[in-house]
Amino acid sequence: MTSHTEPSKGTAPPAYEPSSLDKAMDDAKALREATSGLRTDKKTLIRIIPAVSLNPPQMALLQKTYTQLYQRNLEEDIRGYIHSNFKDIMLGLVKGQTWSDVNRLNDLILEPSEEKRVFTCCEIIFYRTQAKLQAIKELYEQKHSKPLAELVRRCCSGHTAQLLVNYLETPRCEDGTDTLDTASMRADAQLLHQGIWRQGQEDMDYVSDILARSSRERLIALIDEFEAVYRVSLGKYIGEKTTGTLQFTLRVLLSWAEDPIQYARDCLVNVLPVKNGVAECSAVTHMIVWAHWNRTMFEAGKMRLRYTTSTNMRMGLEKGLYDDSYRELVFKIYDGKY
After folding, report:
1. 177-258 has which fold?
2. Which residues contact 262 (CB under 8 A, 6 or more apart)?
3. Of 151, 167, 300, 336, which one is least surrounded by beta carbons within 10 A?
4. What pLDDT does residue 1 have?
5. Number of Cα atoms under 13 Å in the Cβ half of residue 140
6. Over the stretch 125-178, which tens digit does the pLDDT of each residue have?
7. 177-258 and 263-335 have identical folds
8. CATH 1.10.220.10 applies to domain 20-82
9. Could you tell me the fold of the domain covering 263-335?
10. d(C-alpha 316, C-alpha 275), whole Å
11. Per mean pLDDT, which of 228-242, 299-313, 320-334 is the most reliable?
12. Domain boundaries, the chain
């Protein structure tokens, strides 16, 4: 005999949890209504897109459902009805991190500052996994019919470009097991010392090859080995022997290896978009899409920035953004309130 437990008086029935398809249909209908009027209802887009984008299968289902219901493409409707800065963030969320990274790389052609071009390449090339780098390279080549390495060489110069291209193209272990090869550690430390000092083409070939094939754990071991042999930190040696974007690139790589939180903080400083009380919207857009897809890194960087400088990034953004909908979207992502 099966017993049935009656709900106690005054207890509400369990809340109905909509299925993925139910949610996709509700969201698709809301988004179509939001983009089909004379004025786009941006608040609906802000309410739906950021949260759904963090679940790629749900985002794919939403796009498929939207097309099935209306014989229309969600991306094209967003692209066609919204102004550029708001639209660029939305497309970055809908299309995913790989598309966002490729879009950032595309924009480097128009960036006049070489240091900013180099930093964007560093942030993407050093911080992505091998699988994500492969996806970025494939999408870039699909869109432009040429390898990403060509863009890196065009946006960066000399030994800087050589190091970044090698890091982009060289397979490396990602689990730290390459630190077990202690026999080569001393030899690699010596080659780094010699190559950074001489900076001839062959010398820098060795330097970029050593760094490009090393996991983060092996980079840390090399830093320790270098200091043990030469009684000077590798970072200080780089500061004494190199200049310009090569020095900057090497220091960014070491920062990522030694202290990921400091690296996150440096990422924010270098993309800090507020200058003289005015926000450069293209920089804000890239930063906020980057924050969405790199939440852990972004939050760690915000905390370190807060405790190490007087910079109030949020206050600067509040003063520098004037479009209400764009500001609302920026701060929704900035605060992580999805």
Report:
1. Annexin V; domain 1 (1.10.220)
2. 255, 304
3. 336
4. 44
5. 23
6. 998 999 999 999 999 999 999 999 999 999 999 999 999 999 999 999 989 999
7. yes
8. yes
9. Annexin V; domain 1 (1.10.220)
10. 8
11. 228-242
12. 20-82, 177-258, 263-335
- Cβ pair 94, 63 in contact under 8 A: yes
Token digits of residue 204 = 């820098």
Q: Which one has a higher pLDDT value, 98 or 282?
A: 98
Beta bridge partners of 275: 278
Q: In this structure, what are the phi and psi dihedrals at residue 279, rounded to the nearest 5 degrees?
A: -90, 130
Could you give the residue ranges of the DSSP H alpha helices within the chain? Answer: 20-36, 42-53, 56-70, 74-81, 84-95, 97-106, 114-127, 130-144, 148-155, 158-169, 183-198, 201-212, 216-230, 234-241, 244-258, 260-271, 281-293, 295-308, 313-320, 324-335
CA distance 32 to 41: 10
Each residue's pLDDT tens digit, 64-96: 999 999 999 999 988 876 778 899 999 999 999
Task: Locate 53 and state its tokens.
Answer: 């984008």
Band (294; pLDDT cuts 50, 70, 90): confident
Q: What are phi and psi of 12, to 5 degrees?
A: -70, 145
| Local structure of 236: helix, strand or coil | helix
What percent of the chain clears pLDDT 90, i.e. is strictly above it? Answer: 62
Q: Is the pLDDT of residue 289 over 80?
A: yes
Here the tokens at position 21 are 């398809």
